[in-house]
Structures are given as structure tokens and as C-alpha cells.
């Protein structure tokens, strides 16, 4: 067994349950979460030589798991994803009417979210969909807690503005 195989095997034993739990909360489907967990470790194996070791293996694996899961959600479950993003309307400051309009047509929400910077999308997904704490989000994204807070504030503001433009366009366009 070479170094790659032994390290991936060790990481699997250490982290597969944690990664599985992260994914199952996002996709709400135990079998799909199992498949995405497997895909995470396959990608880690294939990209082992790219792991620069400037972060912990756990952080690197969570980045892979996050990307694999987000790709799956984007392809398979966009409506459910976007309803989760807005389950707590108070934080976004949107009216109940705006939330209703947005939920009725998640296409606009998908477009608005897809137009955000990648850093905004990542923070919204981890904090609002998965429910990670600020500290956990900082660990996964390998940044400071204050950066997560600031990015979340800016991301929600940007998303709100994009959605208000969409709502205004459809009401008055």
C-alpha cells in the first residue's frame, strides 16, 4: 500500500462519518449522502498530489465534500436548496409577500444566487443551508470568523438586492 492509499484510508476512518453527517443534512437523503461521501473520498484520492498541506486533511476533505454536494444540489434539487436559504426571512429583511413571490418561482432565486460571487454563495450555503456555526464555516473555508461574518452580511445584502430587482421587474416590468 502506497502513501496515498494509506493516508486516504486513514482519513476515511477518521472523517467519513463527520462528512457523511454534513452531507446528509444538506441533501436529506441517506443513500445519496452515502454516494456523495464516497465521491468525496474518490476525488481526494485522485487529487491527493494537489493537497498542499497548508490546511488540515479534515478541512481539505470538507472543501471537497462541500463542492461535491453543492454540485449535486445545483443539478438535482435547486428548489429545495433555495427554500432552505430563505427559511428564516427575518435575517434577510424581506417582507412575507416578497418571500412568497420568490418561493413561488425559485427560478429567480436560482439566478440571483448563481450571480453572486463564489465566496458569497459558499457562506450562504454553509451557514443557511447546513447550519454550520461561524467558527465551523471559518474552518471549512479556511478563513477567519470575522471574514465569515462580514462575508455573510454582504452576501445576504447582495442577494436581497438582486431579489428585489427581480421582484420589481416582475411586478412593474
TrEMBL record:
Residue ranges of domain RNA polymerase sigma factor 70 region 4 type in the record: 108-159
Cross-referenced Gene3D superfamilies: 1.10.1740.10, Winged helix-like DNA-binding domain superfamily/Winged helix DNA-binding domain
Alphabetical keyword list: Sigma factor, Transcription, Transcription regulation
InterPro entries tied to this protein: RNA_pol_sigma-70-like, RNA_pol_sigma-70_dom, RNA_pol_sigma70_r2, RNA_pol_sigma70_r4_t2, RNA_pol_sigma_r2, RNA_pol_sigma_r3/r4-like, WH-like_DNA-bd_sf
Coiled coil regions in record: none
An example Gene Ontology biological process: DNA-templated transcription initiation
One Gene Ontology molecular-function label: sigma factor activity
Highest rank taxon of the organism: Bacteria
CDD domains: Sigma70_r4
Domain RNA polymerase sigma-70 region: 12-75
Protein family per UniProt: Belongs to the sigma-70 factor family. ECF subfamily.
Alphabetized PANTHER family for the sequence: RNA POLYMERASE ECF-TYPE SIGMA FACTO, RNA POLYMERASE SIGMA FACTOR SIGV
Protein name per the record: RNA polymerase subunit sigma-24
Amino acid at each position: 500500500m502506497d502513501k496515498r492509499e494509506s493516508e486516504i484510508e486513514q482519513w476515511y476512518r477518521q472523517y467519513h462519518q463527520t462528512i457523511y453527517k454534513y452531507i446528509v443534512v444538506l441533501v436529506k437523503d441517506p443513500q445519496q449522502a452515502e454516494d456523495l461521501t464516497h465521491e468525496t473520498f474518490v476525488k481526494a484520492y485522485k487529487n491527493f498530489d494537489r493537497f498542499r498541506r497548508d490546511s488540515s486533511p479534515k478541512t481539505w476533505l470538507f472543501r471537497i465534500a462541500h463542492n461535491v454536494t453543492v454540485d449535486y444540489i445545483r443539478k438535482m434539487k435547486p428548489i429545495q436548496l433555495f427554500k432552505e436559504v430563505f427559511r428564516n426571512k427575518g435575517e434577510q429583511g424581506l417582507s412575507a409577500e416578497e418571500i412568497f413571490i420568490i418561493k413561488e418561482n425559485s427560478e429567480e432565486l436560482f439566478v440571483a444566487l448563481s450571480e453572486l460571487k463564489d465566496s458569497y454563495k459558499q457562506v450562504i450555503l454553509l451557514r443557511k443551508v447546513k447550519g454550520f456555526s461561524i467558527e465551523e464555516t471559518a474552518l471549512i473555508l479556511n478563513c477567519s470568523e470575522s471574514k465569515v461574518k462580514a462575508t455573510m452580511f454582504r452576501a445576504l445584502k447582495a442577494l436581497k438586492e438582486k431579489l428585489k430587482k427581480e421582484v420589481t421587474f416582475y411586478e412593474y416590468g
